[in-house]
Design a protein that fits this description.
13 helices; amino-acid biosynthesis; single chain; 292 residues; DapA-like; Aldolase_TIM
Length: 292
């Protein structure tokens, strides 16, 4: 699955002043990724505020992105939840035309055991006609998918091809890289430790930061994959303050402010999220101007 090596972007959903999906801004955002060299786009992930989109809006977002992308980049669709039978039904009912893989988050809130997590993804594997990228993000789900569980899934199911690892733990990431098959993709889900993960054998990133800074972030990832360590870390060090800032008041609050400052899209988010503070917007503005 070489199309998922490199820089993937977790795309936000732009809203207009009435908090409706902003089609023109979403199209600009897709083109911005294409023109600046990212490798693939993740549709309807957490950054897309998918939890606040109704079924009709989700279909609208999918259709707009597929149309604007027009086959240029690979597309990954977020399909997950904490009700296993419902996720299986959703996958079976989903129109997956135009998508190359599914990103599925580990069950949240329920706090299942490792065996429960394994059985959840076993059921999804059997239902999915597309390759599956697991998503481990304990800060949001309330439970950590441990390396042993990931390794079991990687070995037992051919269509489970990788993991977006967002525990923020480089040691855990290294264990997954070490213990899974050589063709299993360990993808960073944490922008700040993307480069160390790549240099440990990771396959790249599914990034929030790259959405606002696709050229810079993609160069860093490519340098890392080429083992051009000094060049990669020069970019990493320039991006670090910005990475901290975009997550300071929650995601996608910060990155949407970046998109507004870059005149790509509005910064509005839907409740329970609230728009970025003036202090954060000011700090992001300074960062963007310094990066030029």
């Amino acid at each position: 699955m070489k199309q998922f090596i490199g820089t993937g972007v977790a795309l936000a959903t732009p809203f207009d002043s009435d908090k409706k999906v902003d089609e023109s801004a979403l199209r600009r955002l897709v083109q911005f990724q294409i023109k600046n060299g990212v490798d693939y786009i993740v549709v309807l992930g957490t950054t897309a505020e998918s939890a606040t989109l109704n079924k009709k809006e989700k279909e609208q977002v999918k259709d707009i992105i597929k149309d604007e992308n027009n086959g240029k980049l690979s597309l990954v669709l977020g399909v997950g939840g904490n009700n296993t039978s419902q996720v299986v039904k959703d996958i079976s009912a989903e129109n997956l035309d135009g998508f190359d893989a599914i990103l599925s988050v580990s069950p949240f809130y329920n706090k299942p055991s490792q065996e429960g997590i394994y059985q959840h993804f076993a059921a999804i594997s059997q239902a999915s006609p597309l390759p599956i990228i697991l998503y481990n993000v304990p800060g949001r789900t309330g439970s950590n998918m441990l390396p042993l569980t990931v390794t079991r899934l990687a070995n037992d199911f051919d269509n489970i091809i990788g993991i977006k690892e967002a525990a923020g733990d480089i040691v855990q990431a290294m264990q997954v890289i070490r213990d899974t098959p050589s063709d299993f993709l360990v993808i960073s889900g944490d922008d700040m430790i993307t480069l160390p993960m790549i240099l440990s054998g990771g396959a790249g990133v599914i990034s929030v930061m790259a959405q606002g800074f696709p050229s810079e972030f993609t160069k860093m990832v490519n340098f890392g994959l080429q083992e051009k360590v000094n060049e990669a870390y020069q970019i990493q060090f320039h991006l670090m303050d910005g990475i901290d800032l975009i997550f300071k008041e929650g995601n996608p609050v910060g990155i949407k402010s970046v998109l507004e400052l870059k005149k790509l899209a509005g910064s509005d988010v839907r409740l329970p999220l609230v728009n970025a503070s003036s202090e954060l917007k000011s700090a992001l503005s300074v960062f963007i101007n310094q990066l030029k």
